[in-house]
Design goal:
The complex is a heterodimer of chains A (309) and B (239). Chain A is of the alpha/beta class and 309 residues long. The relative contact order of chain A is 0.14. Chain B is mostly helical and 239 residues long. The longest helix of chain B is centred in the middle third of the chain and has 31 residues. The chains are: A alpha/beta (309), B mainly alpha (239). Chains A and B meet through helix 2 and helix 3 of A and helix 1 and helix 4 of B.
């Protein structure tokens, strides 16, 4: 089932481009929307949440327009990027109000709000006013407002911004738990490892356009035209280098402290040759890995190295 | 086509959404500073009445006191409503509301319903206390009703202007009400657009009498016009 379908979707703010000609289909699971600040992530999120209308093309959620169709918005939970909220209210009052506005009957709103607050680990502070909350507590409260009405699609715009490392791990686990319950979740971030901790399914957006989408390894295939780097830490890197020097799959060899970094355009075959070279030379390998298997490298490749935050 | 939602019966009614937003707005008002500041402003005519009393009760200064009260009328409703709507849009807290399955106009109407009554109450109480202190006799009830109606109309005007120009809604509404003073001294056909002119006409009718119903209708038309413009604009407003 298609949850979100964008077809040639563009959004301008006057002469400023928000997103440009985005065609994208989301079928479920946890998806990370990755891109630097100003890339168009929040614009895409807001269009999915029904806050913005596409300037051109279409964007549907559960088959309807989220901007025009209130029944579609009933199935969406949105936590915006900004911190501002109604500081005069307590967390519980805020979440109850949001639950009521999302359609939870009055008799069940408190129960739903308390359950949502418990899910984000805020029960102890739920009677305190939002005004005195830290950034992490505000982020959790926002998440609670988004999940209180048990929506099918959750949109979390930069949910980990400003959160301390311990809280970040906790929030990541809670978002993953929501995903495990079958919710479709879109999480945006400009921080690569945040997305990586949440999901391997990503959409890379840059300058308003979707550069790539899919599993990180699938995306890696898209960039195979770029050299793939492999780092070998061993006791005698020169011996390994000598064994690999004539390989047609190795395009470059660089000696580094305690190891060797090589570049290849055919990683699979290259790994085979590395194994053979190591066995033939009898060196002791302490570590073998690729710095390109993380999102940072993928993002650098896809954006030409200029967009990494 | 939208897929059937098994929980579609849970989509809130417009009335329910308006009520919830009104309740939140009122709660925020009671816990914020705006009400206190408004209370102080409403005391200014009362202080003026006290000054009049100190120089001896005055029988012919009701017009002057009412003019003074008009300034309160021009400030309080925009202070409550235009600032509330403007802040909601400018601070982007409106994103919480508009991402919910409620009609957009419900947000504006909910705020109007929550904030117009305190505006009306403060304007009328301020007028009554100012008259009680400064005049020999409290003006007739119709002056109170005229001010109450005018406060409601100015609230509607403030709502419309705040939706059209969120960032400067309060200042523009106060400016508009100052313009309204000026409209009130224009020829008759233009006078009809002045809320304050109608308040004066109802409160202190000329010897030949005044048509209260027509004045009330004109006030409703002006307020309804601005409110309608705001509600029309909000349908397509993005956050």
């Amino acid at each position: 089932m298609t949850v979100v379908a964008a077809l040639g979707c563009s959004k301008w703010y006057g002469h400023v481009l928000g997103v440009s000609d985005v065609t994208w289909r989301l079928r479920g699971g946890i998806v990370g929307l990755l891109g630097p600040n100003g890339a168009g992530k929040s614009t895409l999120m807001k269009m999915m949440a029904g806050l913005l209308r596409p300037s051109r093309g279409s964007l549907t959620v559960f088959g309807g327009s989220p901007f025009d169709d209130v029944a579609v918005r009933r199935r969406i939970g949105y936590a915006p990027e900004h911190e501002k909220t109604w500081d005069e209210l307590s967390a519980l009052e805020l979440v109850i109000a949001m639950a009521r506005l999302a359609g939870v009957p009055a008799g069940r709103a408190r129960e739903a709000a308390e359950a949502a607050i418990a899910q984000v680990g805020m029960t102890d502070a739920m009677h305190r006013r939002v005004r005195g909350f830290s950034k992490g507590m505000r982020q959790r409260t926002k998440l609670a407002t988004a999940i209180a009405h048990d929506p099918d699609l959750l949109l979390f715009d930069e949910p980990l911004t400003g959160v301390d490392p311990v809280a970040r791990i906790d929030i990541v686990e809670r978002i993953r738990a929501l995903g495990a319950r079958g919710k479709t979740i879109v999480v945006s971030s400009h921080v690569l490892y945040e997305i990586e901790a949440l999901t391997s399914e990503i959409v890379v957006i840059y300058r308003g356009q979707v550069l790539a989408e899919g599993n990180i390894y699938e995306i890696r295939k898209l960039i195979d035209r770029h050299p793939h780097r492999i780092r070998i830490e061993c006791d005698r890197p020169r011996a390994v280098a000598a064994a690999l020097a004539t390989s047609e799959h190795v395009s470059r060899l660089v000696f580094e402290r305690g190891g060797l970094l090589l570049e290849t355009r055919d990683p699979d075959r290259c790994y085979d040759e590395i194994a053979a070279a190591v066995l033939a030379s009898g060196v002791t390998v302490s570590e073998l890995g690729s710095p390109d298997n993380n999102l940072g490298a993928v993002f650098d490749y896809l954006t030409g190295g200029g967009g990494r935050p | 086509m939208t897929e059937p939602d098994p929980r579609s019966t849970m989509t809130p009614t417009a009335a329910g959404a308006v009520g919830t937003i009104a309740a939140i707005t009122l709660r925020r008002l009671l816990r914020g500073r705006t009400l206190w500041v408004a209370g102080v402003i409403a005391l200014v005519p009362v202080a003026f009445g006290a000054v009049l009393r100190s120089v001896g009760p005055q029988g012919d200064l009701a017009d002057e006191l009412l003019t003074f009260q008009m300034l309160v009328l021009a400030v309080l409703p925009p202070m409550f409503i235009a600032s509330s709507i403007g802040e909601e849009i400018e601070d982007r807290t409106i994103t919480y509301l508009w991402s919910r399955p409620i009609p957009r106009w419900a947000v504006v109407v909910g705020k109007l319903l929550a904030l117009a009554p305190p505006s009306v109450a403060l304007v009328v109480v301020s007028w009554h206390l100012g008259c009680s202190l400064g005049l020999e006799a409290v003006p007739p009830l119709r002056s109170h009703l005229a001010l109450a109606g005018a406060a409601a109309v100015v609230s509607a005007i403030a709502t419309g202007i705040a939706v059209l120009v969120p960032r400067h809604g309060m200042a523009l509404t106060i400016g508009y009400m100052l313009l309204d003073f000026w409209l009130g001294i224009m020829p008759a056909s233009i006078q009809n657009l002045s809320v304050l002119h109608h308040v004066l006409a109802i409160s202190f009718p000329p010897p030949e009498g005044s048509d209260v119903l027509t004045a009330a209708i004109w006030m409703a038309v002006v307020g309804g016009g601005w409110l309608g413009a705001g509600l029309w604009r909000i349908r397509g407003l993005e956050a």
